[in-house]
Design brief:
Pfam families: Y1_Tnp. It comes from Brevifollis gellanilyticus. This is Transposase. InterPro entries: Transposase_17 (IPR002686), Transposase_17_sf (IPR036515). The protein is globular. A hairpin with a 2-residue loop joins β2 and β3. A 4-stranded antiparallel sheet has the order 2-3-1-4, sandwiched between helices. By secondary structure, the protein is α+β, with helices and mostly antiparallel strands. The chain has a single domain, classed as 2-Layer Sandwich (Alpha-Beta Plaits).
Length: 151
Amino acid sequence: MPQSLSNMITHLVFSTKGREPWFVDPAKMNSVHAYLGGVSARLECPTIAVGGVADHVHLLARMSRTICLSDWVKELKRASTVWMHEEWSDFATFHWQAGYGAFSVSQSNTDAVVEYVQTQAEHHQKITFKDEFRAMLRKHCIEWDERYVWD
């Protein structure tokens, strides 16, 4: 086949280091979400939705055929951290957690995940980030060790 075609949709979740609530200012949170979307687009992984709350983010994106998942996440975190350090003096000590969760999403389930990502504020009035993340791991049949998930 002379052409490479794909439609791999990924739901990416990662938190701030120690799940510290850095994004309590809605304007800053929205700026970070927009910046992450821009970095992802530059990496040829267009975002479908970006959302989150004060201590973590969710990105739903179509993966590029030319970048691997770990490189995409590494660059999202690196570029956004540098940008926040330069943009806001009160973010001088900001860091993302080392790890992440990445989950495949079928095309037929994309709309439901978009709604989930966009309604994070309402969702987290009922459930903590840790419980949300554990539920996502269970749903996607991913085994984990609590000692190594949270940093």
